[in-house]
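User: Predict the structure for this protein chain, please.
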Amino acid sequence: MSIKRYSPSFPVFIVLAMLVMAIMILLSLNSRITPQKCEASGTPILFIETEGGKKIKTKEKYLKATYSISYGGETLSGNCKIRGRGNTTWKTRELFKKPYLLKLDKAASLLGLPEAEKWVLMANTADKTSLRNAYAYYLAKNVWKSGYWTPDAKFLALFVNGRYEGLYALTEKINIHPNRLALNAKEGSFLFEVRSQKNKAWNFKSKQGISFTIKEPDDLGNEEFKKRQDFIQQAEDTIFSEDFADKEKGWQKYLDLQSFADWYLINEFTKNHDARFQASCYLYYDSDTKKIYMGPIWDFDISCGNISYDGCENPEGFWVKEESQWFKRLFEDPFFADFVKERWNSKKELIKNSSEWIHTAAEEIEGPIMINDQLWKNIGHRQWPHAPGWKKRKTYAAEVNYFSDWVTKRFEWMDKAINTSEVQK
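Assistant: Here is the predicted structure, written as structure tokens:
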């Protein structure tokens, strides 16, 4: 009796065959989603045609391309470059829909936003509602109303080389620009970032172990970089000095009070995981005021309960205050703690009612979300960051309700905690 034996390569063949089938199904799906279907859902459309029809495969190298976008009855088109962007979203296997960086050859106003050359095409892949980033911008612009510049975003359908890529948020990029961060770089102003991945030119690690990158200007020489590094380190040394609470000698000499308080409250309220000074935390130095400002806010896809680790899924408990070295120290100064409490209480009714914005915004993009989900199959499926209860949430409405309910619970806990001695512990 002979026994049939399979080649060791047989399982590999099966896996490859299944992968090919999955790719074929995906390609057939996005070929069936037409611009007309997206237009019927009320979504503006951005068309990108790369030179030679090349695929966007890397974050390191731009592809030459052309773009065309229709808005308000007018069509705008021109030459551009495009590449991948992002860290976790770009490299995580479960997040197939990728974000991009778009660089126009000539500054233009897209979807009514102030004109600029660089734009981010935010995929919002990790957030099944696609609304957490927009919600944070709403809080900054309409609740805190601090006057500091905050990025804005508009939803659109993206087609690359004729194929539907999904629903994206066209987002203003954080950079020094007259229509964005209007800083005088020639006089010494600069933009910097806390980033765990030090893959940029001007990086250093502070004495507290925080990784910083000077983002702009990006054409610094070694001497100019060293000046900025030394200033940031001097500010940090002061924060952790014995006289740190002294109004003249301490942290207030270097840091802008209101921007630090407002950035803290937005990120603490949303329990934004990255805000513990891990990544995507922006700061800038303004040569006019000679102070460091916290912000602009950025990257809220794993906030508001959309996470499954480090306790950030729990609407109770402080996060930024306990995990960020700088903020933990600032709260040791009663003056800072009292100011944060005052800012919270002055905005608490607007914060409490902000969940209404979530439902209104969700109604506006539900149609485009459903088209997006025909391609990417996010809702009801396993996907990082595996927010608690995802298996039971089979509809977009269920995801929106989870988001809104979490915000309501978070407000109740935060309001009680801030208005007791807990905030100063």
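The first strand starts at residue 45 and ends at 50.
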